[in-house]
Amino acid sequence: MYDVTLIPGDGIGPEVAAAARLVIDAAGVNICWEVRQAGEAAIKEYGSPLPGAVMDSINRNKVALKGPLTTPVGAGYRSVNVALRRTLDLYINLRPIQSYKGIKSIYQDIDLVIIRENTEDFHTGIEHMVGEDAAESIKVITRKACERIIRYAFEYAKKNGRKKVTAVHKADIMKCTDGLFLETARLAAADYPELEFEDRIVDNMAMQLVRKPEEYDVLVMPNMYGDILSDLCAGLVGGLGVAPGANIGDKLAIFEPVHGTAPKYAGKNAANPTAMILSGVLMLEYLGEFEAAIKIREALEKVFVEGKVRTKDLGGTASTSEFAEAVAAKI
Ligand code: NAI
After folding, report:
1. I need a surface site. Which of 80, 92, 204, 307 has the fewest CB within 10 A?
2. CATH fold of 1-99+240-331, please?
């Protein structure tokens, strides 16, 4: 039996979390879900968006499945997502991007992996006003953080039979920070002669991903570019409703979709829970529960290919819970 912390989150979070739980339980893995509130839900109950009970639960269980959390824009409390990743040193943000049979997209057979550094860059939020009319934000990049994320990318590529690693940067302009990232990637590449290595400037990368995504395999990049390109890549395979992710450290991991709280769908039982279900699948694979993970992947594919039960983002009329029930029934 596994003890797993479940953070339903804000907006569509509780709906997609309930859907994922239904599907994972249907796959027959014995999980004791420890439900903990964070984000807006927690402020109402505990006066803090990240109560101690959440951290205690994750530290104890070492594995969590998490829905999206609201971060107020332009003011208000700082991102709980960033706080979780930094405090728990979850330095790897793994975001596989795959085409699914049965989901219409102008691209077919996309199979990319974004590996995003998860603890520094502009996301450290070190910024301040300089007088009334200027503002500064400090981009932090360290050799240690570059080294461990880049090594992880090469090791991931090797273990998973991937052919190529592409380092994404803006070292033409940010010669110190992104220059350090690129230099570290070039040095590490020398230790993996069996893998092809190349680098791309991030603006060109964005264009290449739209024009020729099939040419890319494993992409490794600093935090901010990973944040932006993850959404772009989700758009290549059907949108944010189908893009899962994992935040992984040396000792623990939090699995969560790429998407946010999708306020327009919140409380309407209308969001696509696939991204959250697939984040649960990544969690099962992390736990070594490969059979259950395959069962869920196959069930999702059957439902997509049949095409009778589709959520609104994929052109259908099914609700979040109807979709989850259809997937659970296939299992
Ligand atoms: P968002 O990801 O919530 O929504 C972007 C677009 O994708 C919207 O059109 C939305 O309706 C659609 N969408 C997202 N998930 C969907 C799903 N499962 N099914 C169908 N459509 C879906 O991004 P947005 O609007 O920029 O941010 C909203 C809030 O979410 C903000 O407070 C932001 O800070 C937070 N956020 C939290 C994240 C996390 O907890 N990891 C990640 C991204 C944003």
Report:
1. 204
2. Isopropylmalate Dehydrogenase (3.40.718)
